[in-house]
Design brief:
single chain; 289 residues; mainly alpha; 12 helices; 71% helix; 5% strand
């Protein structure tokens, strides 16, 4: 396991204390990874500081600050809803909230996956020079995505209230469970994908290209029923199910419990993927980066 010990290093030039870092190579790979995770979650103040700095630095010096996320999201949703509402001949009262929740939840999912693919490469300069836990940067990436999502929730709340939707407490609770499932799955998937992406640099590019394709085969702003006989594409698309476990309860859509089962199953697989991959290769991240 990693341990940090500070010892004095005496020489003719200086009597200052120099930190010396010891690495116990006899510990198992999974012990090392577990210790890394434990140390990461044991520092909540540092986690919040990294999240806050990482998010608000992007809007430093602006008038609206983080509300620029809300503004740009509102403009994007309004444009898509009006345009595609006309193309599909949809009722805007029903279509507007469908697009609003879809775009916001898809943005959260795609951000977690894209950032997760390069999370360790982006932080290599930091953890290679200090004994900071590597998994802390995955927590930071998830936290920044969550903070951005909170600003986008303002748009969803405004749209839902504007069209007169009133989800029950049970529906809100189920949607919240779906959202927590997205964050849980995203953390472990990013942990595993980021580990592999550090060794194979093409993973980030492949992930970005894959998400671009996935956007068009996932019912973000169109209904799955429009595919007709090809609706099986959506039925076997895990991203569509993660979308539906959040959007479905709020808008009263069909197939929510089916999506909960699919999303829970994929979440279990993602957790195993993250645990095994990070557990087995966490010690090599410094060499790969």
């Amino acid at each position: 396991m990693n341990s940090v010990v500070t010892e004095p290093e005496s020489n003719s030039a200086s009597s200052e204390k120099t930190p010396i870092y010891y690495f116990d190579a006899s510990s198992s790979r999974f012990d090392y990874a577990f210790e890394d995770l434990k140390r990461a979650f044991a520092r909540p103040k540092l986690i919040w500081s990294l999240i806050r700095t990482g998010f608000f630095t992007r809007y430093h010096g602006t008038v609206l600050g983080g509300l620029w996320v809300t503004a740009t999201t509102g403009i994007t949703i309004s444009g898509l809803a009006v345009l595609y509402g006309q193309i599909f001949g949809a009722n805007l009262t029903e279509y507007f909230p469908y697009v609003a929740v879809g775009i916001v939840v898809w943005g959260l999912i795609s951000t977690i996956i894209n950032d997760g693919a390069s999370v360790f490469l982006a932080a290599a300069g930091t953890f290679n020079q200090s004994p900071i836990p590597k998994s802390l940067f995955v927590v930071r990436a998830i936290g920044i995505a969550a903070l951005g999502f909170c600003y986008k929730l303002i748009v969803i709340a405004a749209v839902v209230l504007a069209v007169g939707l009133r989800p029950s407490l049970g529906d809100v609770a189920l949607a919240t469970f779906g959202l927590l499932l997205v964050f849980w799955t995203g953390f472990w998937f990013a942990l595993g994908l980021g580990t592999i992406g550090t060794r194979f640099r093409d993973i980030g590019q492949l992930t970005s290209a894959g998400l671009t394709f996935a956007f068009f085969v996932t019912p973000v702003f169109w209904q799955a029923s429009r595919l007709g006989e090809y609706q099986f594409i959506v039925n076997y698309n895990p991203l569509a199910h993660f979308l539906n476990v959040v959007r479905g309860p709020l808008l009263g859509l069909d197939g929510v419990m089916t999506s909960v089962i699919w999303a829970s199953g994929f979440s279990a697989l993602a957790t195993i993927f993250g645990v095994v991959t990070f557990g087995y290769f966490a010690r090599r991240l410094c060499y790969w980066s």
